[in-house]
Amino acid sequence: MGTAFCIAALLTLLGGVGSMCFRNLVHCAFALAVSFVGLAACYLLLGAEFVGFAQVLVYVGAVAILIVIAMLLTRNIESKHEPLVAGGWVMGVCVAVLASGSLILCVVNSSVVQGPVSARPTMSTRALGEQLMGDYVMALEGIGLLLTASLIGAVVIALREKEER
User: Fold this and answer.
1) N or C: which end of the chain has fewer CB within 10 A?
2) How far apart are CA 85 and CA 92, in angstroms?
3) What are the helix (H) ranges across 46-121?
4) Under DSSP, is residue 157 helix (H, G, I), strand (E, B) or coil?
């Protein structure tokens, strides 16, 4: 599992760095999708099948594609005159190092890390799916309708702005 996890983690990191460094927004969105796929692979390797599949369905299948569609609707895909590195990058690096250091310090000193390893949960992905489609089907359908309505609203707003221009 070590080699596969390292490959998935490297894929996640490279996708994240690519999404920050590419100049073309479409390339940034696809690099973000690669990062999401790497994260889903990490979840699957850690035994969290439902979270891994939800990551693929929700983030790779919906959010990344929604970002690409939004960029295509607004037609502001390229910006050729902006520098690759912003002026305050030193401050950004300092804040990132400070935030990472504080998170690492909290994780290392956490009682969860120092305690005994708990057993894996007994609920499988199949049992979770049966619960979602049984007891919680109305909530699941409500969330689906809410997301569909918000997507339609975003398209209507984008089309109105396009007609006003």
Assistant:
1) C
2) 11
3) 49-54, 64-74, 89-108, 111-114
4) helix
Question: What is the token pair recorded at 94?
Answer: 């300092």
CA distances from 96 to 63, 82, 99, 103 (A): 25, 23, 5, 11
> Length of the chain, please?
165
C-alpha torsion 32→38→44→49, nearest 10: 10
Residue 42 near residue 12, CB atoms below 8 Å: yes
Structure tokens at 127: 């049992």
pLDDT in tens, 93-141: 899 999 999 999 998 888 777 777 767 667 777 888 888 888 888 988 9
Number of H helices, E strands in the chain: 8, 0
Distance CA 165, CA 162 (A): 5
Q: How far apart are CA 110 and CA 103, in angstroms?
A: 10
What is the residue type of 117? V
Which pairs from 156-160 meet CB under 8 Å and 24+ separation?
A: 158/70, 158/73, 158/74, 159/73
